[in-house]
Amino acid sequence: ATTQGRLDSFFKVS
Amino acid sequence: MFEARMSDTTVMKRLMDAITTLIDDGSFDISSKGISLQAMDSSHVALVAMCLRNEAFDPFRCDRNLSLGIQCKQMGKILKCSANNDVMTLKAEDDGDVLNMVFESPNGDRMSEFAMKLTDIDIEQSCRDLSNFGESVTICVTKDGLKFSVKGDSSNASMKFSQNGAGDDGNDVSIDLNDPCTLTFAVKYLNHFTKAAPLSERVTLSLSNDTPLVVEYKIGDGLGHIRYYLAPKMEE
Questions:
Q1: What is the ipTM of this complex?
Q2: What confidence tens digit (pLDDT) does each residue in B156-180 have?
Q3: Is A12 in the B-facing interface, judged by CB distances under 8 Å?
Q4: Cα dihedral across residues B40, B43, B44, B47: positive or negative
Q5: Looking at beta carbons, which residues of chain B come within 8 Å of A11?
Q6: Contacts of A4 in chain B (CB under 8 A)
Q7: Helix H segments across B86-232?
Q8: Which of B14, B132, B192, B216 is spaced 20 to 30 A from B222 at the CA atom?
């Protein structure tokens, strides 16, 4: 099974 | 004072369509270099980054950097009131809360004016969870080519593009590969990104294992670009 990743975990969101 | 004139509204219409597919409202940054935007969708899965250089306008005047909070749907509605070959002028005062848009027919016999209220956009606005995702597409790149495959409830499908071959529509496919990679994404978002296709004859997908996908469309001949970033699906 897969879960949808979020961009927050790849980019530092200010 | 910001004032920019574009000789043909088509690019702006296509650009707003390509942005509205992902976000409701965004902060458009205006500087002497041009207009840019960077915004995530409400679920923080995808991001759109757009830049339209000042060369896309003539004249382009920006005395002071501005951030214009624009409701994309509203701007789209106004843009629909213009003909494709209309000349468009955008105007905003440095401390104003309105973006003025003027459309003129090329021979000058018709002019329409709109004033759109700008909104304060809370960049930190809380995100809403999406309860359902579309089906997933797995993109696999090897030295042999590029393969898209989808496993549905009742059927599976796959499409393969070869490095030196041509797609069904005769468009060339070129692949620049360092390491083979396989990533899975929500098809729904890729469909959203295709909204930008009218802006460019070519799309570039950049993939690397365990990093977001980047989908880029160039705008015109060096006038700018629109890029989408999409978080991959992860194995549980």
A1: 0.83
A2: 777 787 776 554 555 677 888 889 9
A3: no
A4: negative
A5: 47
A6: 45, 130, 133, 186, 231, 233-234
A7: 187-193
A8: B192
